[in-house]
Design a protein that fits this description.
three-stranded antiparallel sheet, single chain, mainly alpha, RING-type domain-containing protein, Znf_RING/FYVE/PHD, disordered N terminus, 5 strands
Length: 105
């Protein structure tokens, strides 16, 4: 349900160029697609397993990010691989903590 009507020309927190179309996300904040891509990539590189608005911390569904950031197929594959890797790492880290707790209790 995100389409060109979701793109606006109002300024955002990161870029005030009036010629840039910006996406309005489900949290209500507005961001240009390139900045959205960079923001989400940074979250993935920090080990996150979900995307959140840097201003209000509300979760952005991946489906929304993929469409509004205008991810290329290569970017989609990269994001999905990193999401999977980060999720697997969190599961392993959680199991390690559980094993450690079982040993000391």
């Amino acid at each position: 349900h995100w389409d060109l009507q979701s793109f606006l020309t109002i300024p955002d927190e990161y870029d005030d160029d009036p010629a840039v179309l910006r996406a309005q996300l489900s949290c209500g904040h507005v961001i240009d697609p390139e900045t959205l891509t960079d923001c989400c990539r940074a979250q993935l590189n920090d080990g996150q397993t979900e995307f959140k608005c840097p201003l209000c911390k509300k979760k952005w569904p991946y489906d929304e990010v993929r469409k509004l950031a205008k991810l290329t197929l290569e970017e989609q594959l990269s994001f999905e691989e990193k999401l999977g890797t980060n999720t697997a790492k969190k599961i392993v880290d959680f199991r390690d903590v559980c094993t450690f707790l079982a040993l000391i209790l």
